[in-house]
Fold:
Amino acid sequence: MTDRVKFLQQDMYETDVRKATVVLLYLYPDANLRLLPRLRSELRPGARIVSNLHDFGTWFPRTTIRVHKTFLHLWVMA
Structure:
């Protein structure tokens, strides 16, 4: 199963995300909002974005769950 996961340490504003099926974010709100246009234009339909704690402002998540003392938000690209 580990062959299906890839962790990259790269500039988040330059990394090519077109092949990603899941993007996990643990960023401040302003960083999420700065990434949003790229994520929306580059991710394929069905790709998922998971954000720990912070959302994307007026782009509401498909679902939000509480895990201990934090929230996880999920978006699925249309």
The radius of gyration is 12 Å. The chain has one domain: 2-76. Residues 29-42 form the longest helix (14 residues). Strands lie at 22-25, 48-52, 63-67, 70-76.
